[in-house]
Amino acid sequence: MPYRYSPQEYLNMALCYDEAGQVMLRAQQLYAERYGRHLHVRTILGAVQRHRESGSFQTRLDVGRQRHPVQLEEDVLAFFERHPVASIADAARMFGVSQYYVWRLLRNEGLHPYHFTRVQELLPADYAPRVDFCRWLLRNRTYNVLWTDECTFTRQGLFNMHNAHYWSDSNPRVIRPDHFQFRFSVNVWAGIVNGTLLGPVFLERLNTDTYLQFLQNELPELLLDVPVGSRRYLYYQHDGAPAHFSLRVRAYLDEAFQGRWIGRGSVIRWPPRSPDLTPLDFHVWGRAKDLVYGNDGHTIRTVEDLRARIINAFDVMASESEVLSSVRRHCLDRARKCVQVGGRHVQHLM
After folding, report:
1. pLDDT category, 212, cuts 50, 70, 90?
2. Cα 157 from chain centre
3. Which domains, from first to last, does the chain contain?
């Protein structure tokens, strides 16, 4: 039966290793001189590594024998109750068991590794305006809100190196060119009202002049595609971007929509930092970028190519009538949930 070292003996090995300047052969000699026992270098190395990883000299065999299996399971589960963001590897090091053991235990208990939902930071002063707006929306239950927003599409698009793989039985040494020195982008306006998608409209840059020109000349033509019933008493919504808040833009909206526009400086105020309440952010832009960048492997080489992809994406979304028709109901669901939680985040609750 192999010799089992005590925690004190493992500690002595680690001390000799440190005194020897972390040179393994010197540590081996020092331990033999001091304690009269010749150790294999792997024994010393194992003690040092276990202590670095888990803060303990105990081996997995030690932990397994010291704890009853039922008690060990309870301890592991209690560890995750106290530290829900811990990893399987953290627990395996802590209790001296395999990662497979921890994974199987969690799975058998019905626990799953859920991802975080990224949200816009809210300030305490934002809660009341969010509740006020959502109550207005629920009280009116209007079909006629034209939700709008602008978004920038870049050449690079969406690419996560961490999730990108090339499966092969040997390393193919594949590369992916980065277009750092050849970047370009386009700004896109879009809107949605009662199941009708408007856009895309390409804006060279978003400032007072371009936005006002769009409102005066292009928006009226876009609204011709909206059913008459939805155009009647239409509410125009936009957020608090600087171009939206300019005096000329607000003066035009006061004249064109006469108390029926939603935004910063309006009688119906848009709550700041609230992308989770508009369907452009929780549906349109995400769906559009999935379609534009996709997984077809083609590189976007020109601005014209990028614009064509965006137009095609909007054509596809416009044909998804059932999804677009559900947007209004989903907006009301989010508004209702926002009121229930006192103006706090709602993405993770939907």
Report:
1. very high
2. 16
3. 7-108 (no CATH), 124-349 (3.30.420.10)
> Which residue in 123, 113, 167 sits closest to 272, CA to CA?
123
* Alpha carbons 318 and 270: distance in angstroms, whole number: 26
> Residue 113: how many CB atoms within 10 A of its CB?
9
Whether 148 contacts 193, CB under 8 Å: no
Provide the whole-model pTM: 0.67
Q: Three-state secondary structure along 248-282?
A: HHHHHHHHHHCCCEECCCCCECCCCCCHHHCHHHH
Residue with tokens 């993770």: 348
What pLDDT is stored for residue 159 in this prediction? 45
The dihedral over CA atoms of 291, 292, 293, 294, expressed in degrees to the nearest 10, equals: 30
Long-range contacts from 322-325, C-beta under 8 angstroms, 24+ separation: 323/283, 324/192, 324/195, 324/196, 324/197, 325/195
Average pLDDT over residues 256-264: 93
Query: Residues with Cβ < 8 Å from 233, sequence gap 6 or more?
Result: 142, 144, 260
Q: Which residues pair with 186 in a beta bridge?
A: 153
Q: Give the residue, 291 or 6, on which the prediction is more confident.
A: 291
pLDDT at 168 over 50: no
The DSSP code sequence of 168-205 is: -SS---------GGG--EEEEEEEEETTEEEEEEEESS
User: Do residues 234 and 223 make contact, with C-beta atoms less than 8 angstroms apart?
Assistant: yes
Range list of H helices, 214-348: 219-223, 228-231, 247-257, 279, 285-293, 303-319, 321-340
The values of phi and psi at residue 170, to 5°, are: -145, 160
User: What's the pLDDT tens digit per position in 137-165?
Assistant: 999 876 789 999 999 998 876 544 444 44
Alpha carbons within 13 A on the beta-carbon side of 83: 10
Where does the pLDDT of residue 197 fall: very low under 50, low under 70, confident under 90, or very high at 90 and above?
very high
- Cα 225 to Cα 202, 221, 230, 292: the distances in Å are 18, 8, 10, 24
